[in-house]
Specification:
3-stranded antiparallel sheet; 22% helix; NUDIX hydrolase; NUDIX_hydrolase_dom; hydrolase activity
């Protein structure tokens, strides 16, 4: 079984909106998600989160806390996965489409209400985002 490990960054602005990316590989349906990606060899989950966030959004960020861990198995594809989610703060930069894989099609701040109506790459993540926003009030 192939073991995939990744990291995701959740960034919330002063309006309580979350930075989301619309992504798809060629021939895939475009879906929204928080910036995320695969841990590279020798990289920590935090380093992966910071790198992927920058690659996908143009922002330099710092992680503030680990907010969720998601693990499981996708048996039909023979994959086990482990993803660490981090709350991040923007240090510098501006929204820039610069993804080296060219899978990112749009970057936008979205309210929880808007996110609930979007086609999500990982629909179960809505609960993670709800919890993070609830804990920030």
């Amino acid at each position: 079984m192939f073991k995939w490990q990744g990291a995701a960054g959740v960034c919330i602005n002063e309006k309580k909106e979350i930075l989301m990316v619309l992504q798809a590989a060629p021939d895939e349906e475009k879906k929204w998600t928080v910036p995320s990606g695969t841990v590279e060899e020798g990289e920590t989950f935090e380093e992966c989160c910071i790198r992927e966030f920058s690659e996908e959004t143009g922002f330099t960020v710092g992680t503030t806390e680990n907010i969720h861990t998601k693990s499981g198995v996708i048996s039909e594809h023979g994959i086990s996965y482990h993803v660490e989610y981090f709350l991040v703060d923007i240090i510098s930069g501006e929204i820039t489409l610069q993804d080296p894989d060219e899978f990112i099609h749009e970057i936008a701040w979205k309210s929880l209400e808007e996110i609930a109506e979007l086609p999500l790459a990982y629909p179960e993540d809505i609960h993670i985002l709800e919890q993070v926003l609830k804990n920030r009030n």
